[in-house]
Each structure stands twice: as structure tokens, then as C-alpha cells.
Design goal:
Blueprint (H helix, E strand, L loop, with lengths): L2 E4 L4 E4 L4 H19 L1 E5 L6 H11 L23 E2 L9 E4 L11 E8 L3 E2 L2 E5 H11 L1 H10 L1 E7 L13 H5 L4 H10 L3 E4 L5 E4 L7 E2 L5 E2 L4 H7 L11 E3 L7 H14 L1 E3 L6 E5 L3 E5 L2 E2 L3 E7 L1
Parallel strand pairs: 2-3
Antiparallel strand pairs: 1-2, 3-16, 4-19, 5-17, 6-16, 6-19, 7-18, 8-15, 8-17, 9-11, 9-14, 10-11, 12-13
Bound molecules: fe (ii) ion.
Fe (ii) ion (FE2) binds next to loops.
């Protein structure tokens, strides 16, 4: 029988039986714990393959958010209909804390991860409570939080013409926008209120409309719901310069010193989820940011997103 080990962060549920059965039977209780805590780790449920994982997600019973419809920058590969590789970026690349797809107007509400193969070294998934981060940031730098709330943020990203798996945000514009021509790309971007410029090498520089940097959940908790830390620390590749990736919604720059305050606080709040093969994690994408530590060896973590 499954046991509820604790209500620390994350909640750890150590199992014995079938995870799909547990998901179905405990759905209501799981959701109550998830909304309070933000993260649940299921360990020891005998989840071995991508299709075992797919079955557990299916039993949870909520609609999938598919990679094809998303505007994610990450290069991913579908394994089953619901399940895909978390990010094809190389092992030495850090993926910094973010809310999944908060740099776009379309994002999932919850995320499942499954560790099929644990890294030999490293490869933890850092997780950080975004409501606590915002509370601390407001205490330390109220003017910055007020500016984020008043102005929102915009993100600029240069997308290659074909997938670049060497980058953490190497998804091509064709795949990101789910189109096969420049005309169709412009139609899609226009419908989403983006601004764009074509580059000489057929890559596409796109700037989002003004997006929230801070959101209020239905229960009144406020969250630092954005992609600022990941973009500022990590959107570095052949096409992208992190210092140009973010701005306030009115186009004014966000000072590096200000970002440093948020980064220092988030680092102190971060818990490193050290994967064991077979682990499944459920995250509330509004309450919790996640990332990926660099690793050595063959690590395989699969993901599935809930609408
Ligand atoms: Fe992510």
C-alpha cells in the first residue's frame, strides 16, 4: 500500500502497488495536496517504461497539453502520444528555474516528469516555490515587484529555421509555430500579438506581447509567474544573447542587479530533486518553478503536460 511519507517540499508518496490505480483512487486527495504544496514525488510504484508512465498520466484523468500546440522553445521528441523527452539540450547545459512556457501566452497548468534512467552524476531537477519567492522578493525589493506588476514583461527569442538540439531553446520556428512557410508563421505570430523580424539566415526574431510577470491565483496567493530567471541566466546560444532576451513590458531594460536579487533568493529556496529510476513527479506549474542541473551519463527524463 502507498504511504504518505511527509508534507515537506515535495510531498513524497512511497508506493508498492500500481501507480495508475493509485492515481484514479486518490485523485481528489492528490489535488488537494498539490495545490497546497506544489510538488508530489511518487517513488517505488514500479513505473519502468514510457508506456507505464503514459498509463499513470492517463489515469490521473485530465486533458493533455500537447507539445505540437505549445509555443515551447525546447527541442523535444514525442515517445507516446502523451509523453515526450523533457529537453534534448546537451548534458552540460543548465536549464534555469522557470514556469513551463510562461514566456508564451499558452502554458500548461501541471507537469508530470518520469525518470526512466537516472544520470550517473548530477541531473537533479531543481524546484522552487514561486509564491514564497515573490513574498521574499517583495520584502527585499518592493519597488521591483511593483514595477513587474505594473509593467509586465516581454521576451525576445531568435528561433532557427531547423531544430538545433545543441541549444536549450533550439526549437525551430517551423516547429514552434507549427507552420511550414514564412507566410503561415507571420499569420500565427500576428494572431498571438507578437512582433517579429526575419534574419538573413532564415532564423526568426520574435518578441512576445506584454505578459504578466506576477499573477494572482484563485485563492489569492501571488506568484512570480514568468520565465525571467531562465531567460536571463540561460538563453545563450549561437543566436541569442540573454541580456537582450527580457525587458519590462514598456521596453525598458530589467537591471542585472535587480535580476540578481531574484536569482539569489530563488537559489536559496531551491530543493534539488535527485532522481531515482522509476520516480514520477507531479508539479503545479503555477506554484512551482523547475529547471535541470547539468549531468554526466545517460539520463532520460520524460515529461507529460496537463492543459
Ligand atoms: Fe521546463
Amino acid at each position: 500500500m502507498a504511504q504518505n511519507s511527509n508534507d515537506g517540499f515535495p510531498v513524497v508518496i512511497e508506493g508498492g502497488g500500481s501507480l495508475p490505480d493509485y492515481m484514479t483512487a486518490q485523485k481528489t486527495v492528490l489535488d488537494e495536496r498539490l495545490v497546497k504544496n506544489g510538488a508530489i514525488l511518487f517513488r517505488g510504484f514500479g513505473v519502468v517504461t514510457a508506456s507505464d508512465f503514459d498509463a499513470a498520466v492517463a489515469s490521473y484523468g485530465e486533458a493533455s497539453f500537447t507539445y505540437a500546440e505549445s509555443l515551447s522553445n525546447a527541442v523535444r521528441v514525442n515517445v507516446t502520444e502523451r509523453v515526450f523527452t523533457a529537453n534534448e539540450a546537451p548534458p552540460q547545459t543548465s536549464i534555469f528555474l522557470h514556469h513551463e512556457m510562461a514566456q508564451t501566452p499558452i502554458y500548461p497548468s501541471k507537469l508530470f516528469f518520469f525518470c526512466e534512467i537516472a544520470a550517473e552524476e548530477g541531473g537533479a531537477t531543481p524546484i522552487c516555490r514561486s509564491d514564497i519567492l515573490l513574498e521574499q522578493l517583495r520584502a527585499q525589493h518592493p519597488a521591483l515587484v511593483a514595477e513587474f506588476a505594473a509593467k509586465g514583461v516581454r521576451y525576445t527569442n531568435v528561433m532557427p529555421p531547423t531544430d538545433d538540439a545543441g541549444s536549450g531553446q533550439g526549437r525551430s520556428w517551423r516547429s514552434t509555430l507549427n507552420v511550414d512557410s514564412r507566410d503561415a508563421a507571420e499569420t500565427r505570430l500576428g494572431s498571438l500579438d507578437y512582433e517579429w523580424q526575419w534574419q538573413a539566415d532564415d532564423s526568426l526574431r520574435a518578441t512576445t506581447p506584454v505578459l504578466d510577470a506576477i499573477r494572482t491565483l484563485d485563492d489569492g496567493r501571488e506568484i512570480f509567474f514568468n520565465q525571467l530567471i531562465a531567460a536571463f541566466r540561460g538563453w545563450q546560444d549561437a543566436r541569442n544573447n540573454p541580456s537582450k532576451a527580457i525587458s519590462f513590458g514598456d521596453g525598458t531594460p530589467i537591471a542585472a542587479d535587480d535580476m540578481a536579487v531574484a536569482i539569489t533568493l530563488s537559489d536559496a529556496l531551491t530543493y534539488d530533486l535527485q532522481w531515482q529510476a522509476g520516480d514520477v513527479v507531479l508539479l503545479d506549474n503555477f506554484l512551482v518553478m523547475h529547471g535541470r542541473r547539468p549531468f554526466v551519463g545517460k539520463r532520460r527524463v520524460l515529461a507529460s503536460l496537463i492543459s
